[in-house]
Amino acid sequence: MAKDYIDNPAALKIDLMLRGLRIDDPLVKAWACGVDGIDIMLPHNTLVNIPCREEFTKGSPYTIRKKDGGYVIGGHSSEVAVSLVPKPKFYERKTSTGIPFAKIASVHGGVTSITPSPRCDFFNANVECKYCAGNLDVKGMDKTVYSVDDVVETVAAVLADGIRGIIYLSTGFSDEPDGGIVFLKPYLQAIKNKFHCLVAVETLPPKENRWIDETYALGADSVLYNLEIYDKELFELICPGRAASIGRKRYMSALEYAARIFPSGTVASHLIVGLEPPGSTIMGVDCLVNMGVVPILPIYRPGHGKALRIDPLTAEIILPVYKHLYKAVKKSNISLNWVKDLSMVTTPAEMRAIVDKTASNGSLIEGFYKSKIGRKAAWGLSSLMRKLRVKKSEEDE
Amino acid sequence: MGFEIDTRPLWLLLLLRARRLMFFMALAAVFFYLLFMSAPAGLSVEGQRAIAIFIVCLVLWMSNMVPLAITSLFAIVLVPLLGVLSKKDTYAIFGNEAVFFILGAFMLAGAIMHSGLSNRIALNIMDRFGKSPRTLLLSIFLLAASLSFVMSEHAVAAMLFPIVFDISKGLGLKPGKSNYAKLLFFALAWGCVIGGIGTFLGGARVPLAIGILKESTGLSIDFLDYAIAVFPLVIVMLIVGYLLMSRFFPSEVTDVSSAHAVLGKRLKGLSKISYNEYAVGGVLVLTIFAWVFFGKLLGLATIALSSVVCLFVFQLVRWKDIEEYVNWGIILMYGGAIILGSALDKSGAAQWLVDSILVNWADRPWMVFATFSLLSIALTEAMSNAAVIAILLPVSIGMADRVGMSPVALTYSIAVPAGLAFMFPMSTPANAIAVSSNYITIKDMTKGGIIMCLTAWVVFNLLAAYYWPLIGMGYMK
Ligand code: SF4
User: Fold this and answer.
1) Could you give the domains of chain A?
2) Inter-chain Cβ pairs, chain A and chain B, closer than 8 A
3) CA of A124 to the centre of ligand 1 (A)
4) Is the pLDDT of residue A361 over 60?
5) What ipTM does the predicted assembly reach?
6) pLDDT in tens, B419-448
7) To the nearest whole number, what is the mean pLDDT of chain B?
8) Kind of pairing between the strands at A111-114 and A166-170
């Protein structure tokens, strides 16, 4: 019988993401209805989005049930008190043009993710990433592009609900040399003009570095160019569209450049755990960290008919990868205050508890940045830095 | 529009930004200290205040932390506010004849440029005389100098720059490498600088100096007298400049026929000479005639403004045509400088400065003259020539009385060298324009500039000592 990790929230998060959760409790079942994963708060404020509908979750040792007015997640022999993260109230409401806010934005802990155009042209060229859940556009899906006003209204609703943290603006694949930042520009500017909030931008690496300068200058506080797979051959095999139109080399050079332009800890890249051997992921972590980039390690969730996962894939095999992640980032002195509190992925900061079992909730500074005043300070600092660092140059584009 | 991201550490960026704030705080502290410290013996309260304002303006003019004109406005505000001069006097001084002369000169130059006359003259002269590399170079050099006799040297440099640039391109000269290109741009810059000191019209600094002189002493300098006194210096510097250029940058070009193609093309692009050009040219000739022969009687500003009125009466220009050529910033700057000079003089501050500081290290007339001219030529390399005059002249006029020298001679000792900025691009716009071509480097300019400056200083002092007495001028009253 595979062991469980009930007593270590960081390891438990990874194991839950890997194996999922069985839901027997009818109340929780009803609560989780219609979603792919449920957001649950583990001890030490460790937020996790746990898969509960996929096939592989049926063999999970973890169940959730009600106990003493609260909830517990039980493993083989012990259990731990957890809490369900309530769904944001704004999910129930619509924009003034009648679009449900839930369609435009989704909240994952400290991150509210907004994708103004749910389309990815890789699908239409049959070069989509093999692991992709296809929740962006696939052939035949509508080509809706949410207006700037709709997105601004959504952000207003998010903030009015008291949801703080970072707004993630992302695009799917765009064939433009700017990687998608020109498309996101009006959204980014409108949000920055109207609200005092931090905004991260997730696009493809642009062809030229001047777009990275522009991304920063326009107001992005953080940027993500997700490499996803470090191994060269696997990258080309699993992400044929990205490999052909951008290339692994450009991912690296763009990330390296962005890490010089953006403040420490604000440039990040995903490396999906489970699609390549752990040793390769570790090499990827080292490579990114050396460039000053924060690696974020989501765990591959096999979808319907997609069996790309390396086998076997257990917590015992991948926990050393996460330990290495924490140690590498810590050693490099990259700031850990930006990439945090994400339910869908695992961040370096959360992995402190794996390395140091006595660690509680992070450092004093991390605690400060989680507070209301800390968030305001982070926004102020980021805006001040931009003001000091950005100079307009007269050359034509 | 693109963006540049400064990736230096945040503390450094903050420090650089705070530098400005710290600078102004330190300046304010110095100002209040000077204002409230106990007045030294022999200095009146008004004099102490005038010195405090003078030092703040001096620092601002030298540092360029705010535009020159704004520093002048600051002086205009502080002088009556601190009771150094009355409000009525302060603003009356702003209406000085020199300010209106400068205004008129700007407008006349604007009318000439706008009519296309100056451009036509320049193209024709270069086309006609520039048949060989040497004559082309000389024609640019002499043309820049002679146009700067009648127009602001900055305007001449700006007008000739595109033509010289096209010639360099037409000859296929390599930026930074070609010696002949360096020669052409040096001829442009130094021609303008040397020509600019020839008359009142090359730059507004001489009228400014005369304005300060007149406010302080009631004395003035005549258009013709000035030209006669300074002309030998112009000739010597043109010769030295030409020899120096040819020695430092031996030309590699043997044929300039492609430059003629460029000039020919530009000339072809011109329409036939218009009534406006004739008329504006006529007004200019008459104006210079009147300045030379009736300047004393009618006043330079009156003549300049009358000519401007004529241009409008005969509809030779429209207001919007010349509006852009009038540098209102310079006019404000000069008005303020004259007020400050007058405040220093009338409050006794200038006299006190001379008595307590200067008189100890320069007591013979030739030494005083040499010292002020050296200070002027050195300062003008690093700061605006008008600021140099505003800083040095009130003090030098005070000195004149103390050592029995003629204030007019001391006005020359500052006003002329203040125009001799040869060394750096920031010294004068003509140099900056030449360096902006990328054909000459700052190093090239500094190398030749040092020799030009020293030569100019020595020649100017020799002229004052040996030539001026021949034309009835001298150090003494
Ligand atoms: S870029 Fe790849 S992962 Fe992203 S939506 Fe397109 S196919 Fe899916």
Assistant:
1) 9-84 (no CATH), 89-381 (3.20.20.70)
2) 48
3) 11
4) no
5) 0.76
6) 998 988 767 778 888 887 888 888 888 888
7) 87
8) parallel
